[in-house]
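Input record, target 12 of the design panel.
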């Protein structure tokens, strides 16, 4: 497979910045990821699917990953096609670093290394603080943090060489404000923000940015077999959200799309809350 046309390799850090940022008077148009490969973990999920559609609409070739969800992977491919893009959805267990490195090696061999990485794979379990133990903490860590940061580090090496990269980790408002009943999950998401703020320092001068998008409560996936939160819980949260409703996955994806764009070249190490102005 040949490298998508239009991908540039700038020679110096300064050139990288110039290549990444829109020129004077140039609109930061939605298609500014044309010719770049975007790797999205958790692409079969609700938010991951919307992120894939957003990046496809911006012109990226999207390589999504799924864990179990073959049916949901088909929905992701439909969403990418509807956005006018191209993509594939491959199996990946993010807690198995060998699988992740094998996927990166394949993309490198095919000359389509990811210049954009969005880590949307993740999830929570309801384990209250008094019942939490080493097992629960380890599960939350491996799924939400260890897999994402190891993949980001491995992908970043290629980005450094190309002097362009966008890494977005999907955190959660829980990582900023805490979440009763899910302390391990909240702690894991908080760790992502600390990792991004740290890695941003190491990668910034090479044109690679690292940010976290931290959604608040998102509407349930209409395609999910079961909702994570009850209607009662959704109502209670909505009352404390300035916007007066839950987020759509597309609204989360729009924030991700901006941070992945060349136009976001001077935003790094940040955690962007997409929570509708929640106060609780
Ligand atoms: N929804 C919300 O309200 C909300 C709020 C804040 C933050 N978030 C965060 O947003 C991210 C996406 O959540 P979502 O709502 O889209 O959830 P979702 O629909 O359940 O999607 C989760 C995704 O993670 C994948 N996954 C699970 N275990 C995996 C593993 N071991 N290896 C690789 N992939 C794995 C799933 O794959 P399969 O489906 O193929 O098994 C799926 O693609 C998560 O990190 C979540 O913590 C969600």
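The sequence produced for target 12 reads:
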């Amino acid at each position: 497979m040949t490298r998508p046309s239009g991908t540039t390799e700038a020679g110096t850090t300064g050139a990288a910045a110039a290549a990444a940022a829109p020129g004077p008077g140039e609109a930061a148009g939605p298609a500014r990821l044309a010719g770049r490969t975007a790797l999205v973990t958790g692409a079969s999920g609700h938010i991951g699917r919307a992120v894939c559609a957003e990046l496809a609409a911006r012109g990226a070739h999207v390589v999504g990953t799924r864990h179990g969800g073959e049916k949901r992977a088909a929905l992701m491919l439909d969403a990418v096609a509807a956005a006018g893009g191209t993509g594939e959805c491959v199996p990946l267990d993010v807690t198995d670093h060998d699988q992740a490195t094998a996927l990166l090696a394949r993309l490198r061999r095919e000359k389509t290394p990811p210049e954009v990485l969005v880590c949307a794979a993740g999830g929570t379990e309801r384990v209250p603080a008094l019942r939490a133990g080493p097992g629960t903490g380890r599960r939350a860590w491996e799924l939400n943090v260890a897999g994402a940061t190891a993949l980001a580090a491995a992908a970043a090496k290629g980005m450094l060489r190309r002097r362009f990269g966008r890494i977005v980790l999907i955190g959660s408002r829980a990582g900023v404000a805490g979440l009763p009943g899910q302390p391990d999950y909240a702690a894991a998401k908080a760790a992502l923000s600390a990792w991004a703020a740290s890695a941003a320092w190491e990668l910034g001068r090479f044109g690679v940015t690292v940010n976290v998008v931290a959604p608040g409560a998102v509407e349930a996936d209409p395609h999910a077999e079961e909702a994570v939160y009850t209607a009662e819980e959704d109502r209670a949260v909505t009352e404390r959200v300035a916007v007066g409703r839950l987020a759509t996955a597309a609204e989360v994806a729009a924030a991700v799309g901006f941070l992945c764009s060349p136009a976001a070249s001077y935003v790094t190490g940040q955690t962007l809350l997409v929570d509708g102005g929640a106060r609780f």
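Residues 1-19, 23-27 have pLDDT under 50 and may be disordered.
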